[in-house]
Amino acid sequence: MRIARFAHSSGMSFGVVEGEPSAGLSGLTVAEIDGHPFGEIKFTGQRWAVADVRLLSPILPSKVVCVGRNYADHAAELGNDVPKEPLLFLKPSTSIIGPNDAIRLPPQSQQVEHEAELAVIIGVTGARRVDRAGAAAAIFGYTCANDVTARDLQRKDVQFTRAKSFDSFCPIGPWIVTGVDVSDVEVRCEVNDEVRQLGRTKDMVFDVPTLVSYVSHVMTLLPGDVILTGTPAGVSRMVNGDEVVVSIEGVGALSNKVLTLE
């Protein structure tokens, strides 16, 4: 099931996206659901063509928990060792934008880079100190994410907060996909149709259940919280006017324009 959050003529709703994404947005419809998507899905009977609504970030979490250096090739390209346990940092909820929203380049940085990532969405039960089985049960679904990073500021500051936290630095979407196996799927980033990153989730240092369990032993994960699972090698600078597309096999494609902050 593909669940989107979208704006329409009457307001904002969650809905189930119907149709085949391979046919493009013109072949998709979205069926409105009553309330939020956690729990039993109840349809209102309202339906729109996806091309006639604005897709928003599929969820607004209380927090975005990120995992650094979770692909060995990415750790190596930045000159870092692979961590012995998951390396965690946070992005604020204010960094989140949705599909087709603009990534804004701040004047403080001259080297803003893309990081294509699989994002995990926590379900209605949340997660607190769960084991691997409990972690799997706590997962609602998955979406695409771009862990936008001001690399020069990251090197300057050593810790990650400022480099990862600017407004618009966490695009997610276009929807949440439930009931899929993401243990070995392709993670891709294209900039202006050029492939910059290409990896597979099987190459993660720590797999998804391990990450969810680990994070839950540090902080309580609430319904709708997001975990970014790391990025493969190939991160590179984005500049004004670039079109960046993060694609996760079996999940979807997230497209964002890059613009200079004015």
UniProtKB/TrEMBL annotation:
- Mind listing the GO molecular function terms for this protein? hydrolase activity
Q: Which residues form the signal peptide?
A: none
Task: Tell me which SUPFAM superfamilies the record gives.
Answer: FAH
Task: Give every Fumarylacetoacetase-like C-terminal domain span.
Answer: 63-258
> What InterPro entries does the database record attribute to this sequence?
Fumarylacetoacetase-like_C, Fumarylacetoacetase_C_sf, Rv2993c-like_N
User: Kind of enzyme, top EC level?
Assistant: hydrolase
Source organism superkingdom: Bacteria
Please list the residue ranges annotated as the Rv2993c-like N-terminal domain.
1-58
Q: What is its EC number?
A: 3.7.-.-
Print the keywords alphabetically.
Hydrolase, Metal-binding
Would you tell me the protein name for this molecule? Fumarylacetoacetate hydrolase family protein
